[in-house]
Design a protein that fits this description.
One of its GO terms (molecular function) is kinase activity. InterPro entries: ATPase_NBD (IPR043129), ROK (IPR000600). The structure is a single chain. The strands form 3 sheets. The protein has a 5-stranded mixed beta sheet with strand order 3-2-1-4-7, sandwiched between helices. A 5-stranded mixed beta sheet has the order 10-9-8-11-12, sandwiched between helices. Mean pLDDT is 92; it is low at 306-315. Strand 5 and strand 6 (82-83) form a beta hairpin. The chain is α/β, with parallel strands linked by helices. Helix content is 39%, strand content 21%.
Amino acid sequence: MKPYVIGVDIGGTKIAIGLVDEAGRVIGQHVLPTHLDNSPSVMVQQIAERIDDLLLAAEVTLEQVRGIGVGAPGPLDVKKGVFLCPPNLPTWHNYPLLEDLQSRYSVPVLIENDANAATLAEKWVGAARTNDHFIYLTISTGIGAGLYLNGNLISSIRENAGEVGHIVIDPARGRCICGQLGCLEWIASGTAIARRGSELLGRIVSTEEVFSLYRSGHPKLVALVEETFTYIGMGCVTLINLFSPERIIIGGGVSNVGNALFEAVRSYVQGCALNPSGRTTAIVPSEVGAWAGVVGAAAVVWQRGEDVRDASVSR
C-alpha cells in the first residue's frame, strides 16, 4: 500500500514541498525561498532535506510513497525532466532536475509544467471538479496557464502550451525578459506590480505593500492596480476568444488581492468577449489556494496509477 505522494512546486521566489494523501490533502509541508545565487544542485539538496524531514515528521517511510511529482516553470523538456530556459529561474537553464532527484530516491519522479500541475489540482479537489472545459490562470512571480479542454489537459507536441504570460498586451510598456515588448507577465505579474509600484513611489516596495497601499486609497497605486486588473481582463478575453472555456480559475499570489480583482475581470469579460456566450464565462478564484502547485504536482503522480513507475522511466 502506497498512500502518499510528495509534491514539489518550484517557483521563482519560493519552493513549496508537501506530503499529499489519496484525497488530495496536504498533511505536511515545508516552504523554502528560491535563492538564485545558489546553484540548482544546492537547491535540490535543500529540497531533498525537506522531503526527508516531512517523511520523518509524518512517520511515513519511503516504501509508503508512490512517487515524487514536481511542478516547475517552463519552458521544460518534460520527457527528459530538464529545465530549458525559464525566464524567472535564469540559473536553472538546462538543469537536469529529473536525473538529480531520481539519483536521490528509489521512487518514481515525474515533472510537469507548474501551471499544468495546478490545473490538475483544481480538477481533482478544487474549483473545476465538475468542469471538463476550463483554464487555470496563475499570476504570481510570472504568469502561466493550464488548458483543460474536452476533458483533457492540453500539452502539445512540444509540451509547453499555455505560456500566456508572453502574449503581447501593451508594447509601449517596455521589453519583457523574453525579448518581446509589453508581455502580460511583464506588466501584470506580481513581479511587475512590485517593479511598477517601486518606480511610482521612488523606493522598493513588495507586491503585498502595493496592494496594502491600494486598499488604503493611495491615488497612484489605485490607478496602477486598476490598470493591472484591466490587463488581466485582456488576457482572460484573449483566452476566452481562443478556447471558449466554461470558466477561468485564477490562482497565484496576485489573486490574494481579493474580490476587487475578480469583479474587475468579470466586468471586462462581460464587455469585451467576442461571443455572447463568452461574456458569461465564470471567473472564479482557486479553491486549492496556495498549495495548488503542490497538490497538482502530486496529482501528476496519482493520475498515472499503477503505471507511474513505467511512466517515470519512459519520460
